């Protein structure tokens, strides 16, 4: 039996394609909680320089905190593949637009107000000429640090990558849906390996090349493709034997621990660390996601406070540079003791979380509901017109995404 045989196929080899896949409407709160942990990794990356001398433990996290974005990219592909059903490409794109852009748009102007108040124009992350490409979600395609890190505290570039991933998702999904497990992993490797090779090479070519590769959507798409492949495997019931899962869990823990230990010496090489962590993050997401899909939970990550933080983590990610900038401007880190530095760090974390919660409930969720209602209203309006008599016109057929093959039947 293959290492990654379907759990259903393992218990019933004759099941084949007739078996129903897992309930893809099932929520995965533990993965939501992990998303919050990844957001905190990025938070530590953006503050550790101010406190690393007084709080060395923060430096251990902050050295490679940027790798939280790698986790986001893989998780994004996994969740989309797990939850996507039939529908048109345009409907998918509209859902993603409604999900990410309203809050993103607001965060662009929040940073403008902050930069205006503190007279930060022209500084890192506050280049006025970078606003337009940021609004168009194109900044990550420009290999100029003053553009891709030019606005919003140098975090908005990742949404430029996500926009590209969403645009490509229907194609990626269709290409992977008809393959078996080995075919999907091979296809993911075909994308991950060359892009990682370029990223690692760039990390040794100098900081300018390293960061340009780090922010480039074309070089980050391998992480997303891997997530899609793993998500399709999960929704078809692929689990792996207990022995294999145990080995993966131990290996993943050791792998991630090694990355943190290497951070002090190699953390400045973004492409190297990110590429090193791709397989470990992929395995972690697959193990936890499939465990939860089968009814297992990790109590801490699945607890209400952690899951709620995961739910607001997108807003937290966008506005945490605002909170950190305010903290720096107020002198919270102009201190000489670890206790005071820790207090400043805690206050910034509280402020960022509070801002995220407010924006999540006042902008992110209401805007998404409004945009989805408008699309639904337009769809109903078009449907009503199609049912009117004496109109010899038929709407063009929408291209439906194929349902993935059920593991065990093979293709």
Automatic annotation (TrEMBL):
Transmembrane segments: 53-80, 100-117, 124-142, 148-173, 185-205, 211-234, 246-264, 276-293, 314-333, 339-359
Claim: Transferase is one of the keywords in the record: yes
Pfam families given in the database record: Acyl_transf_3
Gene Ontology terms describing biological process: lipopolysaccharide biosynthetic process
Keywords: Acyltransferase, Membrane, Transferase, Transmembrane, Transmembrane helix
Highest taxon of source: Bacteria
Domain Acyltransferase residues, every copy: 31-355
InterPro entries referenced in this protein's UniProt entry, alphabetically: Acyl_transf_3_dom (IPR002656), Acyltransferase_3 (IPR050879)
GO cellular component: membrane
Region feature Disordered, mapped onto this chain: 1-21
GO molecular function: acyltransferase activity, transferring groups other than amino-acyl groups
Signal peptide range: none
Keyword ATP-binding: no
Protein's UniProt name: Acyltransferase
Protein species of origin: Frankia nepalensis
């Amino acid at each position: 039996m293959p290492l990654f045989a379907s759990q259903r196929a393992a218990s019933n080899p004759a099941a084949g394609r007739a078996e129903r896949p897992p309930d893809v409407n099932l929520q995965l709160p533990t993965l939501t909680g992990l998303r919050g942990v990844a957001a905190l990794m990025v938070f530590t990356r953006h503050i550790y320089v101010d406190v690393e001398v007084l709080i060395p433990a923060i430096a251990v996290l902050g050295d490679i905190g940027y790798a939280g974005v790698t986790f986001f990219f893989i998780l994004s592909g996994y969740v989309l593949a797990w939850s996507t059903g039939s529908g048109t490409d345009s409907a998918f794109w509209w859902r993603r637009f409604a999900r990410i852009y309203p809050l993103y748009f607001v965060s662009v102007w929040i940073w403008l107000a902050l930069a205006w108040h503190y007279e930060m124009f022209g500084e890192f992350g506050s280049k006025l000429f970078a606003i337009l490409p940021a609004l168009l979600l194109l900044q990550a395609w420009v290999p100029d640090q003053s553009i891709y890190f030019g606005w919003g505290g140098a975090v908005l570039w990742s949404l430029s990558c996500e926009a590209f991933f969403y645009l490509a998702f229907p194609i990626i999904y269709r290409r992977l849906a008809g393959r078996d497990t080995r075919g999907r992993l091979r296809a993911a490797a075909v994308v991950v390996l060359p892009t990682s090779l370029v990223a690692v090479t760039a990390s040794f070519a100098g900081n300018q090349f390293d960061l340009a590769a780090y922010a480039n959507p074309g070089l980050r798409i391998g992480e997303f493709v891997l997530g899609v492949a793993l998500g399709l495997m999960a929704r078809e019931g692929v689990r792996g034997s207990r022995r294999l899962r145990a080995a993966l869990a131990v290996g993943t823990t050791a792998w991630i621990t090694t990355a943190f230990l290497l951070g002090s010496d190699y953390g400045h090489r973004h492409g190297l660390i990110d590429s090193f962590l791709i397989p470990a993050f992929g395995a972690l997401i697959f193990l936890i996601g499939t465990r939860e899909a089968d009814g297992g939970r990790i109590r801490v990550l699945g607890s209400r406070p952690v899951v709620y933080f995961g739910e607001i983590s997108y807003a937290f990610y966008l506005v945490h540079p605002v909170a950190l900038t305010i903290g720096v401007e107020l002198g919270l880190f102009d201190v000489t003791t670890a206790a005071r530095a820790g207090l400043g760090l805690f206050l910034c974390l509280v402020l960022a979380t509070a801002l995220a919660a407010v924006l999540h409930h006042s902008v992110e969720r209401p805007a998404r509901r409004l945009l989805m209602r408008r699309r639904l209203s337009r769809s109903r309006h078009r449907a009503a017109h199609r049912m009117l008599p004496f109109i010899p016109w038929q709407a063009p057929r929408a291209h439906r995404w194929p349902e993935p093959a059920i593991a065990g039947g093979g293709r």
